[in-house]
Amino acid sequence: MTPGEYPVFGKEAAVVVSGVSSWLQAGGTEEKFWEWFSCIRKDLYPVLILQEMGQGLVPMDAEDRRVRDENGRIAQKAVTEAVKAEYVWHGLIECWKNVSEENTYS
């Protein structure tokens, strides 16, 4: 997909970001992710898809723990800063946050 093919929301084009856990496993860090993400979100409407890792189980390997922890911190910060956040588990969608709905009822 080329940038001209992204769906447009107002003046911003949407871009889907996924594979963060694989990127972390390849040596990426939480700090580098947010540096990169802050650059793309200036001009684009990012849709961030993050993988749930571990489901509460702590890996024995130190590198696996680092990846799990950094992925979790990225997810927490992303939900805090997001306009909308949804959790999908086996095809079931739970809305965790929707700022536009919150503003509708205030």
Class by SSE composition: alpha+beta
Average predicted local confidence, pLDDT: 82
Are there runs of 5+ residues with pLDDT below 50, and where? none
Number of DSSP strand runs = 5
What does this structure look like?
- The chain starts with 7 loop residues before the first strand and ends with a helix.
- The strands form two sheets. Strands 1-2-3 form a three-stranded mixed β-sheet, with no helix packed on it.
- It has one domain (3-104): Rossmann fold, CATH 3.40.50.
- The protein has four helices and five strands, in the order ββααβαββα.
- The chain is globular, with a radius of gyration of 15 Å.
- Helix content is 41%, strand content 25%.
- The protein is α+β, with helices and mostly antiparallel strands and 106 residues long.
